[in-house]
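Project outcomes to date are best conveyed with an example. Our students and postdoctoral researchers have been running inverse folding experiments weekly, and each run begins with a structure described purely in tokens. The record below, which covers 135 residues, was selected by the lab manager from last quarter's runs and is presented without edits.
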């Protein structure tokens, strides 16, 4: 029952929160135009977490999952995928991923930021469920 309430709250926050897969022009910290990119491939730890996600029923095209924390302790989740066009049913993907990570002990009570990158390093989705961005 203790795990059900956070998962339920998370699911509700995902439904209320916004998602964008906008690939319009952006400027990154280097001043380059274009969609944000990630240049590195997933670490062995991120790959191992993705393998556990697969074993739990997650999509096999997820190549890596990494968790970091931004100021204030909010998790920043990075997902590497083999999909070139992202997830058509992104809300379902994000909900399933969050549920899996909560089961792995990741505290999502303060929301989280999720960035999904394609095989060429282009950001396909960004999703922010933190209260300050959803009030």
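After processing, the design step wrote out the following sequence:
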């Amino acid at each position: 029952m203790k795990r059900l309430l956070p998962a339920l709250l998370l699911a509700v926050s995902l439904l209320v929160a916004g998602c964008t897969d906008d690939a319009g022009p952006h400027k990154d910290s280097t001043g380059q135009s274009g969609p944000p990119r990630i240049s590195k491939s997933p670490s062995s730890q991120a790959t191992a977490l993705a393998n556990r996600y697969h074993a739990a029923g997650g999509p096999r095209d997820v190549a890596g999952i990494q968790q970091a924390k931004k100021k204030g302790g909010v998790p920043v989740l990075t997902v590497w995928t083999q999909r070139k066009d992202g997830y058509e049913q992104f809300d379902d993907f994000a909900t399933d991923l969050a549920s899996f990570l909560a089961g792995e002990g990741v505290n999502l009570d303060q929301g989280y930021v999720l960035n999904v990158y394609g095989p060429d390093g282009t950001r396909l989705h960004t999703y922010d469920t933190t209260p300050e961005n959803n009030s």
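The radius of gyration is 14 Å. Helices lie at 4-16, 44-55, 90-103. The training component of this project remains on track.
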